[in-house]
Amino acid sequence: MITALVIGAMLCLIRVSAFVAFLPVPSGRTIPATVRIGLAVAITFCLAEQHAMRFMPAPGLSQPDVNWLQLGWLAAQELMYGLSLAWMLSMCLVPIRIAGAYIAQEMGLTMGGLASPQDQQPSNVVTNALDALAGMIFFSLNLHHIALGALGHSFARGSVASGSVGVLPEFRMVLDQISRIQEGGLVIAAPVGIMLFLFFVTLMVTIRSAPQFNFFAIGMPMRVAVGTVALMLFLPQLHSGLAVWMKQVAQYGVF
Fold first, then answer.
1. What pTM was estimated for this model as a whole?
2. C-alpha distances out from residue 193 to 97, 178, 223, 231, Å
């Protein structure tokens, strides 16, 4: 009885740990590893009481021998299912990074890259700022409740004792969501991007007409200044666009 309960709790911990470790908002280098470990253990403690009991044998039956090969297969399934949930929920943040990269490119800020606080990929100031804003929107809209609800519902759809993972969304729905990521990033960045594009065209025409104006000496500071003003003017539109895409998490709450 105790062995089955411990095995069921460990399988729950594997799925929860994979979900917490790769979910974008609570992960990243800025969050200490002890906080992520504590969060995974706390969630497992809440879920294992109900779902780990399903791994125990029926009353009147003896405890079967532990099959380590089967346990390894179940652990791999739990790990992959937790990673899949975290990956699909992280799709709501990809358009935000695309928007930040596009705006930074139009402002000329991609010449000097920065280290992203979320991963090892190169980043820029605009993307980091939009990531921080998206994190605040994520918690202000209580989307972390939906994410944790999706994790809890995954155990109801695919128990650790069933030997199979839960039911994932249809491939068509996932493919449609991925295909709209690039479009969503451009829609978020559209107000600022259009203003920067028009200014860049005007700047090129001016330099063409007056070659004495140096592009790097005059044009680059002006692009940064116009981009900064555009970000301030269209901040409400950026906030609305970010909120719309952050609410895409709700579509995955049925896992």
1. 0.71
2. 14, 22, 11, 10
